[in-house]
Protein: Histidinol-phosphate aminotransferase
Amino acid sequence: MTFNQTLDAIRVYEAGKPIELVVREFGIEPKDIIKLASNENPFGCSPKVQEAVSAIVSKMALYPDDSMYKLKDGLAKRFGIDPHEVVIGAGSDQVIEFAVHAKTGPGKKILINSITFAMYEIYAHHVGAEVIRTASRAHDLDEFYALYLEHKPSIIFLCTPNNPTGDSADAADVKAFLSKIDRETLVIVDGAYMEYARYKDSAKALEPKELIEAYDNVLYLGTFSKAYGLGGMRVGYGIAQRDIITALYKLRPPFNITTLSLEAASAALEDEAFVQRCIAKNFEEMDRYEAFAEAHGIRAIESYTNFVTLCLKEGTSSTEVADALLRQGMIVRNLAGYGLNAIRVTVGKPEENDRFFALAAELV
Structure:
C-alpha cells in the first residue's frame, strides 16, 4: 500500500518504556520496577483531584463540555488572562500539532534547537516543512537569531526549560530575542517545565500574560502532565492573543479532552499548595543527583525541571547502562537517539532514587 510521501521523513516517536512492557519482556514483578523515564510526578496528583474525578465517574457515558469553560476559566484566573486567549489540547503536543498545521507547510521552515523535544520535528514533517536546527546544545539565542535572519522560518520553537537536557534560558534573554522577531513569525515558547524553573530561579520564569501582551506572535504552551501529576489524563494548553487562538480552534476536533480529564485539570488548579510541595521535594532530591554525579566523575547538566541528564564518561555507553538498569527493573531514558552519550533520569521519591544510585554506581 502506498502512503503519503511525507511519511518517509518521519521517525516514530519512542516514549519511555511502560512498566507493563518491562514485566512482559523480563518477567520482573511490577512491585520491583521503578520508572524514572517519562518525567512524571512521582507523588502523583493532588488528593483533591482524585476526589473530584471520583465524584463524576458516572458521567463517563456523556460527551464532555466542549466549551471547556471550567478549565479555561481556571487557567484564566491562574494567569490573569482572558479565557478566549486559551486553547486546550490532549497534551500540549496536540497544541503544537494545531500550530504547525495552521502556520507552516511545504516550502516553509521551522527553527528548533539542536537537541530538543522530538515532536517539533515530527509535526513539521507531517506538513512537509523543512527543519532548521542550531548547532549548539543549549539554547544559544544569538545563533537562533542568525538562523532566523538567514532562513526566515514560519515558526520558531523555544523549549525552556529544555527537554531532554533540563537547561533553561534566562527570561530577559528570551524577551530580548522576541523583540527582534517579525510579527509574521510564530514563536512557540514551550513551558512544559516552567513550574519547576519558576521555583528554582525567578530569572528563568516566563509569565504567559507578559509574553502575549508584549508580543502578538507568541504562543505559550503549558501542561498538566508534569508538576500537576496528570500525565495519564493528557491535558495541555496554549495561551496567545485571540487571533492565534481563533486560528488554532479551526483545527481542534470536537471533544478532544475527556470529561474526567477536564475535571482533573480543573481540580488540580485549586490545589497549588500540593504542587509546590512536590516541586520542593523534587529539588531536595535533585541535590542528591548532583552529588552522585560529582562523586562518580560524570557531568550532570544543571536542571530546572523534574529530571536530570547525566553525561557519561568516554568509554561508557549510555545504551549499555540503560539496558543494564532496565534488566534490573530500573527504567531510565537513553539519550543516544539524540546524539548524546547520556541518560535522562526522572527525579523520583527518596527510596526510588536510593535504588537508582545503588544500581548506577556499578555501571557509570
About this structure: The first helix runs from residue 19 to 26.
